[in-house]
Design brief:
The strands form 2 sheets. This protein has a 6-stranded mixed sheet with strand order 1-3-2-4-7-8, sandwiched between helices. Strands 5-6 form a two-stranded antiparallel sheet. The longest helix is centred in the C-terminal third of the chain and has 22 residues, at 141-162. It is of the alpha/beta class and 163 residues long. The protein has 5 helices and 8 strands.
Length: 163
């Protein structure tokens, strides 16, 4: 199942032919792929991204899928700025989920967003290529927005250094 949702401020239609992210995220729509099998958690994340200060010009377009297979299909069809990835899905579990996504989206920043509060798994996820590791239930709207924004900035910096 794939659902596309927008924060209340977003008003432009998605463009799958849009070029890579621009250096500044200040006044743009950030396209987020949410890979989450729990509809309640997906709803909470949508709410967190829809909540922003009135002076915050960032907007979020959220595409929600509930399996790894659907995520890999959507990644071939659309461009995203960031992936929010749950590690426990019906068709994949644990760090193997991250590994499989990295094969198909090596240049996209990935923020692991899971219920597993395990520092060892968090370190391994970051070592394997995740930009951040967030634990469900410990995240505020502000910390989620910061994790998304900082992960995109870090990934852009890393790519620029490699060039």
């Amino acid at each position: 199942m794939t659902k596309s949702l927008e924060s209340k401020k977003a008003n432009s239609p998605p463009d799958k032919n849009q070029s890579a992210p621009t250096p500044s995220l200040d006044n743009m729509t950030i396209r987020v792929l949410l890979v989450e099998d729990n509809p309640g958690d997906a709803f909470l994340i949508q709410g967190m991204l829809g909540v922003s200060r009135s002076d915050d010009p960032r907007q979020y377009r959220l595409t929600h899928v509930d399996t790894l297979e659907n995520a890999l299909e959507v990644l071939q069809q659309k461009d995203f700025h960031v992936i929010l990835l749950d590690l426990s899905l019906p068709d994949s579990h644990g760090l193997q989920t991250l590994e499989k996504v990295l094969v198909h989206a090596a240049t996209l920043p990935i923020v692991v967003f899971t219920g597993l509060d395990d520092e060892t798994v968090a370190m391994k996820a970051v070592q394997q290529g995740a930009q951040d590791f967030l634990v469900k239930g410990q995240v505020t709207p502000g910390s989620l927005v910061h994790a998304i924004r900082y992960s995109i900035e870090r990934q852009q910096n890393e790519l620029a250094l490699k060039q």
